[in-house]
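Q: Structure tokens for this one, please.
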Amino acid sequence: MRFYRLPSVLMVFAGVCGGLFLTVLSGLYVVKPLVMDAEIVYFGFPFAWFEAGRGGLLFIGPWIYHFVWQNFIADFMIYGLLISGVVYLYFARMRHVP
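A: Here is the predicted structure, written as tokens:
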């Protein structure tokens, strides 16, 4: 049995799994902008896809969480295409090595 489709399957698998892994890992990137009467935290890079905030003028309120699907999908596509490109370049280089 010939494995002529193996590089394509590995590129897709690496793109999906690697993209998801790097997107979730990008959630460790934290930005805390300076706001006078509130505390806001953004997670994700290059697009903030998770936001947490709380605020109040006289008392501190509960945390409010917001998941931004569009930014999560954009990060996932960027990282997935990046990983797929690296895997493609690896297989293209290995094909030309004697």
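A few notes: The helical segments are 6-25, 69-95. Residues 69-95 form the longest helix (27 residues).
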